[in-house]
Known about the structure:
alpha+beta; three-stranded antiparallel β-sheet; disordered C terminus
Amino acid sequence: MVYSEKVMDHFANPRNVGEIENADGIGEVGNSKCGDIMKIYIKVDNDIISDVKFKTFGCGAAIATSSMATEMIKGKSISEALKLTNKAVMEALDGLPPVKVHCSVLAEQAIKAAVSDYYKRKGIDPEPIVGCIPECDDCACH
């Protein structure tokens, strides 16, 4: 498998690794088929994602997509972060091998799950804003 230099860089030197104590939202998604699990923590100030961290258990592509996705939403508004697509993450990494595309999908879903959790903590129903996250347990889209 051939990875781009950007994928290798984000794998070898991942940005935003760790967890945020007292995070405003936490999203965890996993794929039992491949064994990748991503957990994203967000801190929100005035609708802006002021800080974001991640912990990913998985392959190099999963770590690289988590790293790139967190870089892409840091400092952005929640609505901008929700527009982040797995395609945009892959393009920012100069592509992924076809068998690793699911990793970028997990990164997108983890961000949506974290934002969803943020809204739930505020007493707001996230589904009209975030949409349905197939990975989450309490959505109506199963």
